[in-house]
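Entry 12.
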Amino acid sequence: MATGTGVSSWTLDHIGIAVSSLDDAISFYERTLGARLCLRETIEASGVELAFIDTGDSKVELLAATRSDSAISSFLASRGPGIHHICYRVSDIKGELARLKGEGFTLIDEAPRPGAAHSQIAFVSPRSFMGVLTELVQPRGGSTLGR
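Predicted 3D structure (tokens):
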């Protein structure tokens, strides 16, 4: 991203994929890519169990619903398994949310919320991001999963 315009650098962190069976999806990605599982966690507040597969420079996040009223359950019911979102790592999530809001973006999360591995996350509406559900993540202490 541009640096002289008040925009901080965004780095691709992961691609989120909604799946029906987390165990089957983990097995598929490990077997097919030769990748390794680097984190498996349940986020009760979101009704999701997730697994991060380390692919080298970035990750694949596999998302399975833990209850019928979760966003992943709704996504799977309406669209089936597949790409759910793209996530960018940022160093100042609050600052980026304020900047995006000031530029007229529609935010799903106006403030960061807890994510996997004690990170802070927030989502931007696909209506504001060329049809792509976009997640911002600020990892705890600036580190990335599995690294």
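Annotation: Helices lie at 22-33, 71-79, 93-102. The chain is about 20% helix and 35% strand.
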